[in-house]
Design a protein that fits this description.
Elements (H helix, E strand, L loop, with lengths): L9 H8 L3 E5 L3 H7 L4 H22 L3 E8 L7 H24 L3 E5 L7 H14 L6 E8 L1 H17 L10 H5 L12 E4 L18 E4 L9 H12 L8
Length: 246
């Protein structure tokens, strides 16, 4: 961030630019743990703390939607013990934090192929969604067993079924049609995509939705991300010009 740039509060940036949705690739948990000579499990647990801090910051700044990449379809290729840990971490985090998030008005939902998860975990996710669905605070959308190409395959199959049954004229398929068949159909597209950990790729994340999102990459590992980090990202966003191809 250029120190000579005009500083404006994060709350005012959100109001002035009408930011509604921030998406985050929470990268660097394992590298953070390695850097601190700790098992990777500690990095993932510390990452939960970073998510809680970011969720509170979104509430403070007036950001309505936060989508985080928690487990990708490719993450099944990790060691079985790490996959099991991540599944249990999600379950335990929801059990331990659900009541507080509910009291703070957080709406929780999940995107991804939830059917591939264990019945017990599916039950926990369904309960969290149902329990918080009428809240009015930040909408936390957790991408779990999510892959954007997989999402588009699911959407394409659903649209093809509508065409096959005669309910949909293929000549009338538009961008809006596709948007209505993907996981995020009721959520505005992200204004900003933040990736921690310094990697310069999108990793099969929200490929349709981020068509005009501003990318912000930080070298911070995810466990280090906090309210100031989000504020810094908003400052960078504020000083860009969104041209939308114009």
């Amino acid at each position: 961030m250029n120190s000579t740039m005009e500083m404006i509060t994060a709350e005012n940036i959100v109001k002035e630019t009408q930011i509604k949705h921030i998406a985050i690739i929470m990268d660097g948990n394992r590298r953070w743990a390695k850097e601190h000579n700790l098992p990777s499990a500690f990095g993932h647990k510390k990452g939960v703390d970073a998510l809680k801090a970011t969720l509170r910051a979104c509430d403070d700044f007036g950001i309505k939607y936060l989508t985080v990449y928690a487990f990708s379809t490719e993450n099944w290729n990790r060691k079985p013990e790490e996959v099991d840990f991540l599944m249990n971490l999600l379950a335990n985090t929801l059990k331990n934090e659900l009541e507080e998030m509910h009291e703070n008005g957080v709406v929780i939902s999940f995107i991804g192929d939830i059917s591939k998860l264990s019945p017990k975990l599916q039950e926990i996710l369904a309960h969290s969604t149902e329990y918080t669905k009428n809240n009015k605070g930040v909408h936390l959308q957790i991408a779990f067993n999510y892959g954007s190409r997989d999402e588009l395959v699911h959407a394409t199959k659903a649209i093809a079924e509508k065409v096959k049954s005669g309910e949909l004229d293929p000549e009338k398929i538009t961008e809006d049609t596709i948007s209505n068949y993907i996981y995020t159909k009721n959520i505005p597209d992200p204004d900003i995509l933040i990736r921690t950990g310094g990697e310069m790729r999108v990793s099969n994340y929200l490929l349709w939705q981020i068509a005009y999102a501003e990318f912000i990459v930080t070298k911070q590992f995810w466990p280090e991300f906090d309210k100031k980090s989000l504020s810094d990202a908003l400052q960078e966003f504020y000083h860009r010009q969104r041209r939308f191809g114009k």
